[in-house]
Design a protein that fits this description.
TIM Barrel; 246 residues; 8 strands; single chain; binds SN-glycerol-1-phosphate; 8-stranded parallel barrel
């Protein structure tokens, strides 16, 4: 029981901050070779999904292929019920806490829950908070984006997530965001939130990744850089080495 969650907790104990590369099944080519490479470079798990996944057949096929190629867990990162797929090891079972539409807070979760059960996916209870505006996640999720310079608002939601029993909290600037979440906001949330703190969106630079790790992030998610940067392997390797405690 809770085997992926226990694995993550052990990895955090061992390495400090972890990196979970995000593979978007609809944007990436060479998904299998990317998955193999990120594992070689030291990624602790692979996230698969995104805000606008619609092709569940393709998603399921890609997950099966990735599972044959890597040993690290494959974790679903769903933007909607369409992001639930068998064959993965676990799912970030997320509530978009600062959405203005209850569908993204509890509606999609209710619709997707039996599918999660049937697929025997380990559900990782996750509070999802969108920081800033203008990204696909912000638009699709109808989020009332928390301003980047308002850490107190992020703290309020984070503590609420903790009291609601969410053992993971994801501070999300949005895929391809121009601005990443500041180390100051991460540090502020870290002082209050005791669970596993995930930070993502706009992280492209190893030095920034190091600052976010030092500020208290447990997991950094990196997606767009892998898709767009020809030098991504070196940068991802640097990120992983810099954020590790050992
Ligand atoms: C998006 O946080 C993830 O949901 C990753 O963001 O694509 O900007 O790395 P990037």
């Amino acid at each position: 029981m809770n085997s992926v969650e226990n694995y993550i907790l052990n990895e955090i104990k061992r390495y400090g901050t972890l990196c979970f590369p995000l593979i978007d099944s609809e944007n990436s080519t060479n998904v299998i070779s990317i998955a193999k490479r990120v594992e070689e470079l030291g990624a602790s798990a692979i996230l698969i999904g995104g805000s606008s996944i619609i092709d569940q057949i393709e998603l399921s096929k890609i997950i099966s292929q990735i599972k044959l190629s890597v040993n690290i867990p494959v974790i679903l990162f769903p933007g909607n019920v369409t992001g639930v797929s068998p064959n993965a090891d676990a799912i970030l079972f997320m509530s978009l806490l600062n959405s203005e539409n209850p569908y993204f807070i509890t509606g999609a979760q209710a619709l997707g829950a039996l599918g999660v059960k049937k697929a025997k996916l380990e559900a990782l209870p996750t509070g999802y908070l969108i920081i800033g505006e203008g990204t696909t996640a912000w638009f699709v999720g109808q989020a009332k984006g928390i301003p980047f310079h308002k850490p107190n608002l992020a703290i309020m939601y984070s503590l609420a997530a903790q009291y609601l029993g969410m053992r993971f909290l994801y501070l999300e600037a949005g895929s391809g965001a121009n601005q990443h979440i500041s180390p100051e906001m991460v540090n502020s949330v870290r002082k209050y939130y005791d669970g596993i703190l995930i930070v993502g969106g706009g992280i492209r630079n190893p030095e920034i990744a190091k600052q976010l790790a030092e500020a208290g992030a447990d997991i950094l998610v990196v997606g767009t850089m892998i898709e767009n940067d020809n030098n991504w392997e070196k940068k991802l390797s640097d990120i992983i080495q810099l954020i590790r405690k050992v």
